[in-house]
Amino acid sequence: MDKNMYAIEVERLTKIYGKGETAVTAIANATLQVKPGELVAILGPSGSGKTTLLTCIGLINEPTNGKVVIDGTTVADEGWNSGIDLKRMRREKLGFIFQAHNLIPFLTAQENVMIALEINHLTKSEAKGRATELLVSLNLGHRLNNYPSALSGGEAQRVAIARALANKPKVILADEPTAALDTENGKNVMTLLKKLAVENHSAILVVTHDHRMVEGFDRIFQVNDGRITGEKSNLEVWASHELG
Ligand SMILES: Nc1ncnc2c1ncn2[C@@H]1O[C@H](COP(=O)(O)OP(=O)(O)OP(=O)(O)O)[C@@H](O)[C@H]1O
């Protein structure tokens, strides 16, 4: 099998917080793969380990056991791979979308996107051009100079998405990107993520317990009690939620 066939490969990943009697196994033996261009959900109840899984894949939480491969590079194999520059991998390969309030409050919408580009060595004027182009494509051309406090929830979330995508990452990780939004704005965010997966050929992994959004995903992994208990179609998830 071509080792670059997947953008994300997770093999028997386990994360245990703490030691001894107080140890908590947040993720146990999780295996999943995401291909470029796929929009995939991790669905599960509160405390089931979704965020832990996402942050281990996002190189911000060291797995206790198991393997994580990003875009063909093994970043963790029984702990971090010591030969890898994790910071650089994060910056160059990954885009994170957290809740909208992760925007920097004293920077405008445009500056919030520019900063991600400048960190990756674009000049100020290159960064300004690309940030403007991205924000205009997200229907935020009229909000370039607004600070986060003057944006609606949906607008701020789109700025956070623009920032996450600025460097065209191979892998995009999103933690509850629609939870704080009304259904219409949530659906807009899903449409946008789908478009990006297809156009940028990015692999997008979204942690959610928002059943309203299931129809937008290509695949859904169900997590319960730290274990991936199955892969479901969006119809199955919708039916089990709506029909009990
Ligand atoms: N830093 C930590 N130290 C110790 N235990 C933790 C830590 N982070 C998470 N946990 C525990 O690990 C388990 C999984 O937590 P996690 O946040 O990954 O779940 P989640 O499914 O994302 O939950 P939620 O939907 O509520 O955000 C929980 O029992 C939690 O209490």
From TrEMBL:
Domain ABC transporter: 8-243
GO molecular-function terms, A-Z: ATP binding; ATP hydrolysis activity; transmembrane transporter activity
InterPro entries assigned to the protein according to its UniProt record, in alphabetical order: AAA+_ATPase (IPR003593), ABC_transporter-like_ATP-bd (IPR003439), ABC_transporter-like_CS (IPR017871), ABC_transpr_LolD-like (IPR015854), MacB-like_ATP-bd (IPR017911), P-loop_NTPase (IPR027417)
Source organism, top-level taxon: Bacteria
A cellular component term, taken from the record's GO annotations: plasma membrane
Keywords from the UniProt entry: ATP-binding, Nucleotide-binding, Transport
Matches recorded under PANTHER family: ABC TRANSPORTER ABCH.1, IMPORT ATP-BINDING PROTEIN
Record family assignment: Belongs to the ABC transporter superfamily. Macrolide exporter (TC 3.A.1.122) family.
Full protein name: ABC transporter related
